[in-house]
Amino acid sequence: MTIATELPAELAPGTAEAPITMLNPDFPFSYDHYLAHPDGLGTVPPELYGTEVAVIGAGLSGLVTAYELMKLGLKPVVYEADQVGGRLRTASFPSAPGVVADLGGMRFPVSGKAFYHYVDLLGLDTQDFPNPLAPATSSTVIELAGKKHYAATPDELPEFFHEVAAAWKAAVNDGAAFSEMQEAIRARDTSRIKELWNGLLPQLDEQTFYGFIAASTSFKEAGFAHREAFGQVGFGTGGWDTDFPNSILEILRVVYTDADDQHRLVTGGAQRLPEALWNHAPSGMAHWPGGTSLASLHSGSPRGAVDSISRAGSGDLLVRERWGREAAYRAVVTTCQSWLLSTRIHTEESLFPSELWTAIERSHYMQSSKTFVMVDRPFWKDIDPETGREVLSMTLTDRLNRATYLLDDGPDKPAVILLSYTWNDDALKWLALSAEERVKLMLHSLEQIYPGVDIASHIVGQPITVSWEADPNFMGAFKANLPGHYRYQQRLFTHFKQDKLPESQRGIFLAGDDVSFTAGWAEGAVTTGLNAVWGVVNHLGGASRPGNPGPGDLLDELGPISLD
Length: 564
Ligand SMILES: Cc1cc2nc3c(=O)[nH]c(=O)nc-3n(C[C@H](O)[C@H](O)[C@H](O)COP(=O)(O)OP(=O)(O)OC[C@H]3O[C@@H](n4cnc5c(N)ncnc54)[C@H](O)[C@@H]3O)c2cc1C
Hints:
Elements: H1 3-6, H2 31-36, E1 52-56, H3 60-71, E2 75-79, E3 90-93, E4 96-102, E5 108-109, H4 113-121, E6 126-128, E7 140-144, E8 147-151, H5 159-176, H6 178-186, H7 190-204, H8 209-215, H9 217-222, H10 224-233, H11 248-256, E9 263-266, H12 272-279, H13 294-297, E10 306-311, E11 317-321, E12 326-329, E13 332-334, H14 340-343, E14 346-347, H15 354-362, E15 365-366, E16 368-375, E17 394-397, E18 403-407, E19 415-423, H16 424-431, H17 435-449, E20 459-467, E21 478-479, H18 486-494, E22 508-510, H19 522-539, H20 551-558
Parallel strand pairs: 1-2, 1-13, 7-17, 10-14, 13-22
Antiparallel strand pairs: 3-4, 5-9, 6-9, 7-8, 10-11, 11-12, 15-21, 16-19, 16-20, 17-18, 18-19
Bound molecules: flavin-adenine dinucleotide.
Flavin-adenine dinucleotide binds near residues 80, 107, 368 and 468.
């Protein structure tokens, strides 16, 4: 059902071979090429080797930042309030620790080349993720308004769903130059990408996702039922109607770059990636002896939660931990959700321009909830003798659960059901409920869709549930801009290039997926971490290698335009 896989070949003439990458139209900088370049990411003057740089947050962004700073000869000092991994958090079921559940990021588009640079470097295995109607999914059920449709492949769905997909395809082609943009992304034609995107931005910044589809000729002609079904079933990863109030620009960034397509999971859990970055000892570092890793530089554990960031009289930045320890740095990178800079961390106001504070405060986060149970085996593959169909399928529904995913590691082993993965209003419905109450309601919904299938009898152990908005170290799942937020995003993203800032506001860098243009995708956590590395290196007097210009070197040429 993804628009990308359904596009006829003639819509991408002559470019079928080149893959789509997450070359973001706001800043189409090829981070994958930059990372793969044999010259590396830059140099710092040898007299600065060993200089400490504070990195706040040991999620993916903080660890990419710290890992690359270490390779360049600096000494990252990582602070973490909770676990190494952040929103790449994998929980184990206590009675079978090898059986895992990814509570945050769980499916990673192959177009996210910077993310996979690290997956490959660290030798992690990946597998196809069982999305609705994906090749790795043996069957999918779409249940809307009490009517159930079973399909092993998209072709088996009723004509109505094909009309919905066609209306969406036409809407993005007519209103957002979809096929031209994908062609330019395949060709890495940055001037064409910029030309297309810079033309669309002023028209679309103030449009919601819903407003965009409702105004499109194709959905107007198709009628409300098609819009409604599109919201329920969406594209690629399932229902998107909880995204309807968000800016259409957010959705376009996802579909242009195939971020909704060809997802893979990290075998053993997504947290293995940040953990591997923490433990890995890279070869050929500028300063540190072989065998040095982030873990060894920190004697095994990051420093604690940060409580305040301020400017010392010396000009250095002072970082104080919640339990009182204080240290001074010439440069600090913050990678936690940026709301935390005004809510949980006392950040001296004068460290950022007031327009940047406005951008931080206006950030809009999605809520998200997931509930998993472990079952004795992947019983859903049993065939119902009456219908000849699998007894339970990957399910999209307009009931409370919204989306149920089935994850197994082969027959005769415990398996996992992600009973419900929800966003926004749908996630808030779970927020006040205990894990047990959540599971009961979810099973009740599934009983209506699969009468007679006794899911509960297969459950073993305790359920695992999360509501990211309830965790004080996150306060939300991931950012999603509302209409009119482009200016804020542009300020946040470009802040790492600080040549126009006064001295008193330099040296503190923002990174993390909410600073990126593709929040909610780990690729943005990686790429903003690389921006911060460039910022720190330049701030301290280092530079990119001439043959491998970095993101800050090309920001003026390729960067997001100003709408003012
Ligand atoms: C429900 C959900 C589903 C997702 N699904 C996907 C997906 O399928 N595919 C995908 O690509 N991406 C997905 N994402 C996004 C992905 O998880 C993120 O992009 C990525 O993990 C963000 O990494 P980060 O380092 O930017 O931030 P974080 O992981 O949030 O790291 C920031 C760290 O800062 C720490 N911190 C907070 N306060 C302090 C403090 N005071 N002092 C020190 N440390 C502090 C936090 O504990 C945290 O560890 C999902 C996210 C969520 C929540």
